[in-house]
Write a structure and sequence with these properties.
With about 325 residues, the protein is of the alpha+beta class. The chain is built from twelve helices and eleven strands. The strands form three sheets. It has a six-stranded antiparallel beta sheet, covered by helices on one side. A three-stranded antiparallel beta sheet has the order 7-9-10. Strand 5 and strand 6 form a beta hairpin.
Length: about 325
Amino acid sequence: MQSSIGKYIIQRTIGEGSTSKVKLAIEPETGKEVAIKIIPKNKVTAKSTTLIRSEREIAILKLFNHPNIVKIFEVFESDEYLFLVMEYMQKGELLDYLISKKAISTTQSLFFFQQIIYAVEYSHSHLISHRDLKLENILLDSFGNVKIVDFGMAGLVDNQNLLNTSCGSPHYVAPEVVTGKSYDPFKADIWSCGIILYVLLVGRLPFDADSIQEVLIQITQNEPEIPSHLSPDKSQLLQGMLQKDPQKRMTIQEIKENPWFCSNFPRYFEQPKTQIDPNFFSPRKVENLSTSIISSLSRLGIDENSIIEFLTSQEANWVKVFYSLN
């Protein structure tokens, strides 16, 4: 790779996967550090999973504006590569941070957890479920604030609110997803947040084994061991979020009403507003629709005729959210 990409000066590689690399770069005019995700075009085709995930992530991150969700600044391409310019998270993955510290205080656990829940609530309010929430997909900025990343597997939820595609990381996946049944992706996200909270408070995963198959068996059959030293409020959260029956699982509103969750808000921590303007869901007239926005939405894997049907319907759906915020 060249030592510069567009206006950015490349510093070093900070991440690498099977289909992409992430480079730390600097914008010379401002001195701002950014992370550039680099995807070789020879590894993607028009219908490849990598391209679909990348386009979905681009669309979602351009839409979102939340202090605890990573921001995307710019997207451009060359003959050989696709480049995603994003916020640089100086302190890296939350997983690596926890490993380096070995143990953290309940105050710090709460600080991380509060930010995660408000980010997930924001995403859900826009009818988008993350579907791959895990410690590796939670990064920390220079101040130690949470930033959720990797929306490539996100579910775009319509009014039916059920999905069939199984996805996510084995240790964090909800039991209803393991069984292959239709599931509510928002409730599955809550389960994953419960796993994250368990690790923050207990220091280990609640379900772990030598093989993935055994982990999945534990998730569907075993109850998590709640340490007796945890306070009743913390235990209630873990038990409620890791409830195997999704209909009995805690909601985000119930999580926010938990006494421990409500305690010890830092003075500078403002609870972001997550309510969507009701007009986002109003049906639109065909003659007033923007062809450029419809074309952009079609990159998410839905044909233009279906997009128009969604936009002119009476029901709330994710297409209306994307359209309104474009």
